[in-house]
UniProtKB/TrEMBL annotation:
Organism taxonomic ancestry: Bacteria, Pseudomonadati, Thermodesulfobacteriota, Desulfovibrionia, Desulfovibrionales
Protein name: Histidine--tRNA ligase
Main enzyme class: ligase
Compartment(s) of residence: Cytoplasm
EC number, as in UniProt: 6.1.1.21
HAMAP family tied to this protein: His_tRNA_synth
Organism for this UniProt entry: Desulfobaculum xiamenense
Assembly with partners or alone: Homodimer.
Chain residues that bind L-histidine: E82, A83, T84, R113, Q127, E131, R259, Y263, Y264
Length: 416
């Protein structure tokens, strides 16, 4: 019978790759909690309507990339393509706004987008998602960016570029939209790609985000949102940039950065790297005031970002897989159960290690001890057992010594 293989665009992760994910999660918990964020967990399935209403009917994500299916009762469900929509649904449904003025939340887990898989682009990928709900001050956006910066540096990553823009608000955006429509009216539409020809009418801003070279050339001189910002948006943007300058966080103002999801207003940003192939965005986010009320909640402002963990993993060097403290080598069958007891006692004391389940030759057992990365091999044969002892072999230094069973823990701990 043929074996069953995984589906396209998903991955099985083993060490050292899975160690990188654990490292990203551990560092996130450490760094984000210092800024007052709480970890939450939300479902990976939601009603399809949630994504259509938040991400936007006209976006690639909703139009082409969602895993949508009817459940057994015929209700349309979708595997989440991102976490913001679900988090806002949960925020509203659980009335988190009643408990606190500002909610700082983060979560991580798998997301699903039906895209053409390539390096750094998966159909099941993982995001580390951060949302700050309830604050509309530019200092809140600045703090969010500083936290992202601190997190990435905490992982040892320094060669990343921060691209920043402001998309304006409902007051200044219509003016820019009209300027774009006028600009596109002067272009030969047939020269644009199929998607952009449609976007010119449905969502002209998104034309600026097109990756097709010809579209980029044609729109090189398109009106910039920066020239249309209202006073409030301009001041907020300047405050944010001023804080980044003062904190010596390097960034590039990219007036073409518009992002692929429709809910953004004001600040938008992406963290990019040229070291991960064609997919350059490691993280992306921005402010999305208005989304919560659009989903039926109160009018509460919010800002956030998500990091693509697979892309971040591509940038992390191989981490050293941690070894263990001990390996109990069983040299005689009579020692199998005592070896297990010894291992159990040592683990209860906080040491890490393994015990062989049955007897084997000295050579094969030493090989096994090296394989699990043990520092000490505890040799247990009939002689040792009769004397109530083990032979402790230091696999780093090579020396060995007979030690009473009752003192093994102390012996290891004093030499760690
Ligand atoms: P996004 O830009 O669509 O934003 O995704 C954020 C990050 O997820 C990207 O920068 C990328 O690293 C990663 N990513 C996206 N698609 C894939 C894929 N197919 N394979 C691998 N990685 C991928 C959002 O999702 C927003 N919800 C971010 C946000 C949170 N905005 C405000 N709050």
């Amino acid at each position: 019978m043929s074996n069953i293989q995984k589906i396209k665009g998903v991955a099985d992760l083993f060490p050292p790759e899975s160690d990188k994910f654990a490292f990203m999660e551990r560092t996130a918990r450490e760094v984000f909690s210092r800024y007052g964020y709480n970890e939450v967990r939300i479902p990976i399935m939601e009603k399809t309507e949630l994504f259509a209403r938040s991400i936007g009917e006209e976006t690639d994500v909703v139009q082409k990339e969602m895993y949508t299916f009817p459940d057994r009762k015929g209700r349309s469900l979708t595997l989440r393509p991102e976490a913001t929509a679900g988090l806002m649904r949960a925020f509203i449904e659980n009335k988190l706004y009643a408990a606190q003025n500002v909610s700082k939340l983060f979560t991580f887990g798998p997301m699903f987008r039906y895209e053409r898989p390539q390096k750094g682009r998966m159909r099941q990928f993982h995001q580390l998602d951060v949302e700050m709900i309830g604050a509309n001050e530019p200092q809140a956006d600045a703090e969010l960016l500083l936290m992202l910066y601190t997190y990435l540096r905490g992982l040892g990553l320094r060669q990343l570029s921060f691209e920043i823009n402001s998309l304006g608000c409902r007051n200044c955006r219509p003016g820019h939209r009209q300027a774009l429509v006028d600009f596109f009216a002067g272009l030969n539409r047939d020269e644009l790609c199929d998607d952009c020809r449609r976007r010119v009418d449905t969502n002209p801003l998104r034309v600026l985000d097109c990756k097709v070279e010809r579209c980029r050339e044609l729109t090189a001189n398109a009106p910039k949102i920066t020239d249309h910002l209202c006073d409030d948006c301009r001041t907020s943007f300047e405050v944010i940039l001023g804080i980044l300058d003062a904190m010596k966080v390097e960034y590039v103002h990219n007036p073409r950065l518009v992002r692929g999801l429709d809910y953004y207003v004001g600040l938008t940003f992406e963290v990019t790297s040229t070291d991960i192939g064609a997919q350059t965005a490691v993280a992306g986010g921005g402010r999305y005031d208005g989304l919560i009320s659009q989903l039926g909640g109160p009018d509460v402002p919010a800002t956030g970002f998500a990091i693509g963990m697979e892309r971040l993993a591509l940038l992390l060097g191989d981490l050293e897989h941690p070894g263990v403290d001990f390996y109990v080598a069983v040299l005689d069958d009579s020692c199998a159960t005592p070896a297990l007891s010894l291992a159990q006692e040592l683990r209860s004391a906080g040491l890490t290690g393994e015990a062989a389940f049955g007897a084997g030759s000295l050579k094969s057992r030493l090989r096994a001890a090296n394989k699990v990365g043990a520092r000490w091999c505890l040799l247990m044969g009939g002689n040792e057992l009769a004397a109530g002892e083990v032979t402790v072999k230091d696999l780093a230094g090579g020396e060995q010594e007979r030690v009473a069973l009752s003192s093994v823990r102390e012996y290891i701990e004093s030499r760690k």
